[in-house]
Amino acid sequence: MFVNPRLPERPSAVEVVTMTEQDSNDSRYDVVVVGGGAAGLSAALVLGRARHRTLVVDAGEPRNAPSAHMQGYLSRDGMPPAEFLALGREEIARYGVELVRDRVTDVARGEDFTVALERGGRVRARRLVVATGLKDEMPDVPGVAERFGRDVLHCPFCHGWEVRDEPFGVLASSAAGVHQALMVSRWSKDVTFFLHRVAEEELSDLDLRRLAAAGVDVVPGEVAALVVEDDRLTGVRMADGAVHSQSVVFVAPRPVPQTGLLERLGAEMDETPFGTYPVVDPNGLTSVPGVWAAGNAIGFSEQVVHAASGGYRAAAAIVGDLRMADLDAALGA
């Protein structure tokens, strides 16, 4: 599920502003949300409806920029992701949430969090939501990055229905690519698994038997490039010159979580096969008091629907946290 990589110059019903040094230095928010994708906008919506002064800082660089549609989100299945985000920005504006087109470069922890912006200035926040997502690094094969999100795909749940029954190629990045080849065979009976730089000996006997049971052809040897004709993927060219006809290729990008802010704040991190992510509780609270995380900032497999849910849970927890803090402060006074 992918999203347009750039915010419109003037989104409908939403004014995207550039915050000046004077503006930001005079601004104290209840919550600053870093990232304006599904997770960040969902959190902002809940916070705005709870009457919290909220700022969303969005650089406009979502993970899922290449795709023209998103799937599997009940009532939004097939919606263009850019339209989905535009509607989200309109919704948060109704509740007074501010949205700034900028990038957070640093966060300092004190009585409040001090958030530094790339275009200059700082804002303060009592609580933070980090929804900075991740980036995908493509396999180093000519044509893969250029076609990603069109006929080079990675998630059959996102795009499998749209390309069902076409000839699928699966480009192995490691022996774990067997799982992807087996999964996509649910959507097509014509699947070819290209081992690329994976030796056939790296596959277990169970792997080979499962591939055979699924009807997946296994092709050893390195892939040299994708073949594109008339702006359409038509094949996979091997290093020996052989060409296999394919109209869709599935790949496994290397995920690069955008968690630098969390690391600078000293959040506890967890190493996984898909990158390093913050340790969070069921509501997204990190090990840093006052800092929540949601969306692909907490895991590789968070789809749009999961990200929106995570942002909602984080925001609801923050509303409760701030309410108790304010009541305790009043009791102390």
UniProtKB/TrEMBL annotation:
Positions of transmembrane segments: none
UniProt superkingdom: Bacteria
Segments forming domain FAD/NAD(P)-binding: 29-309
Signal peptide from the UniProt entry: none
Pfam families in alphabetical order: Pyr_redox_2
InterPro entries: FAD/NAD-bd_sf, FAD/NAD-binding_dom, Ferredoxin-NADP_redctase_2
Catalytic reaction equation(s): [thioredoxin]-dithiol + NADP(+) = [thioredoxin]-disulfide + NADPH + H(+)
SUPFAM superfamilies with a match to the protein in the record: FAD/NAD(P)-binding domain
Keyword Oxidoreductase: yes
PANTHER family in the record: THIOREDOXIN REDUCTASE 1-RELATED-RELATED
Record's protein name: NAD(P)/FAD-dependent oxidoreductase
UniProt organism field: Streptomyces prasinosporus
